[in-house]
Structure formats: C-alpha cells, structure tokens
Design a protein that fits this description.
- By secondary structure, the protein is of the alpha+beta class.
- Strands 4, 5, 6 and 7 form a four-stranded antiparallel sheet that branches. It has a three-stranded antiparallel sheet with strand order 2-1-3, with no helix packed on it.
- Strand 1 and strand 2 form a beta hairpin.
- Helix 2 crosses helix 4 and helix 6 packs across helix 7.
- It is rod-shaped.
- The N and C termini lie far apart (167 Å).
Length: 282
C-alpha cells in the first residue's frame, strides 16, 4: 500500500518492481497469504482469584487482498495488533473470569481453542471482514508450583480411577461374555435335546405305523384263512349233502354187508332185500 504526503492511496500493487516519488510517497508491505501471529505471556485471572499465564496462543489468519485498502484505512497496517493480539488478551480474560482453575487447566482446556476462535471470527466478521481467522492453538497455562503439584496428583488419581474403571468394564465384559457363551451352550443343548426328542417321537410314530400295518396284514391274512376254511367247510357240507342220496347209501350198505361174514342155509340163493330194509329203516 502507498501513502502520498501522508494520505493513503487506493492503489495496491502486487510484489514486483514499482516506482515511487522519493520523500513524497511511502510504501508498506502487507502479507496476504496465511500467517501465524503468536500472542505470548497472557495473564488470566480465574473466578476463584488464582492468576495463571498462557505462555503462547497461536492465531492462524489471512488478509484478503480485495479488502486490504479498507482494512488499512480503518485499522492501519497494524490491524493485527488490534484484532488479534489485543483481542486474544480480551477473550482469554473473558473465559478465565467465568471459570474456575480446574475448568481452565483440566476439564475445559480442550474447549478453549474453539471458544476463542469462534469469538474472534464473530467479532472480526462484524467489524473487520478483510481478516479471516483460520485456526487457534492454545498452550497449557502456567500455574503456581503448589497448585501444579496438586493438579498433577489429581490427574494421577483421575488416571488411576480411569484405569480402574476400565478394568472393571473389562471384567464386566468378560462376565457378560461368559454368560452369553453359557446361554448359547444351554440353548444349543436344549435344541439338541429337542431334536433328539423329536427324532425319538418320529421313530415311535414310524414304529407304530409299521406295527399297525403289520397288524392289518396279519388280520387280513387271518380273515383270508377263515374265509378259505369257511368256504372249504361249505363245499364239504355240500359234498356230504350230495353223498347222502339213496343210491349212495344203498351202495355203502351193500359194501358193509358184503364185508360181514355170512352163512346161508337152505336151497334158495340170497338177495339184497336185507340191504334195502336197512336203508329204508335209516
């Protein structure tokens, strides 16, 4: 940027060879690429009245080229003194005054970077839009030795407690795993038992069906035998009935009489009259 007779010129040039009027025109070089401003030794009074110091806060920022003239016109070439260095001091004191030492040093330390960056971005976007805040890095604050020793012990105790809790969770997980394994084994055993029982029941049903089939076959066989015997008896009865004819009876009687020894007396020859009388009598 250029000044002529103390007046800021709107002319802005890029790096290179340029001409100016001696003793009339003055020039200042500004960086429009990313740069890191380091704010050091920042005092911080906590809510409890303890004074600590942040040794370094780094602010990565960039000046937009198209807004260089407006930024220098409003805030001079030392714009970063007002909006970064002084503003970081203000933000640190604002944060410390509403928090305890434990919050600043331990519990909320990891939030300080984001809190400071967001506050800077909000204020700068409203008042100096030519400046862009990219990131903020805060170092651990320096506390009195007596408090530092106390907090180191607290941190060790907290670490021990975390380790103890972690071990407890591991043991709980192991117990839960054992319970799960035992449950799975019991379910598996129950499933095997159910499968075995179903298999035995199926075998029983199959045996019963086979036995019923065999009974049906045996019953049918016995029925067939009975039917055959009844049929044979009926046929035999018909045969016997047919044999009881008069001619058959005479023939059988004659055979019996012929086998019986007989003695004849007289001069007449014997005849079959006796057989006829036997048949008639029967």
């Amino acid at each position: 940027v250029y000044w002529r007779n103390g007046a800021l010129l709107s002319t802005i040039t890029d790096p290179g060879v340029h001409l100016k009027l001696p003793a009339i025109t003055s020039v200042e070089q500004l960086q429009v690429i990313m740069q890191t401003d380091k704010v050091t030794n920042i005092p911080c009074g906590t809510r409890g009245g303890v004074m600590v110091y942040f040794e370094k806060v780094e602010v990565v920022n960039r000046l937009h080229r198209e807004l260089v003239f407006e930024t220098v016109k409003n805030f001079t070439v030392n714009y970063d003194r007002l909006w970064i260095f002084d503003r970081v001091h203000h933000e640190i004191n604002q944060l410390c005054s509403s928090r305890s030492l434990e919050q600043i040093y331990i519990t909320e330390f990891h939030l300080l970077d984001e809190l400071i960056m967001h506050s800077l971005q909000k204020q700068i976007a409203l008042n100096a839009p030519g400046i862009e805040i990219i990131s903020v890095r805060v170092t651990k604050p320096r506390v009195p030795d007596s408090l530092l020793e106390k907090y180191e012990k607290m941190e060790q105790e907290r670490t021990s407690l975390l380790i103890s809790e972690q071990r407890k969770r591991v043991l709980q997980k192991r117990e839960e795993t054992k319970k799960i394994v035992a449950t799975i084994a019991a379910l598996k055993e129950a499933d095997v038992s159910n499968i075995t029982m179903m298999q035995q029941m199926s075998e029983k049903r199959t045996s019963q069906q086979i036995q019923a089939l065999e009974d049906m076959i045996h019953s049918a066989h016995q029925q067939a035998l009975a039917d055959a015997q009844h049929y044979a008896a009926a046929k035999q009865a018909e045969v016997n009935k047919a044999k009881l004819s008069k001619a058959f009876l005479q023939s059988e009687a004659a055979k019996v009489l012929a086998e019986v020894p007989k003695t004849y007396y007289g001069t007449d020859a014997p005849h079959m009259g006796l057989a006829d009388k036997v048949i008639e009598a029967s």
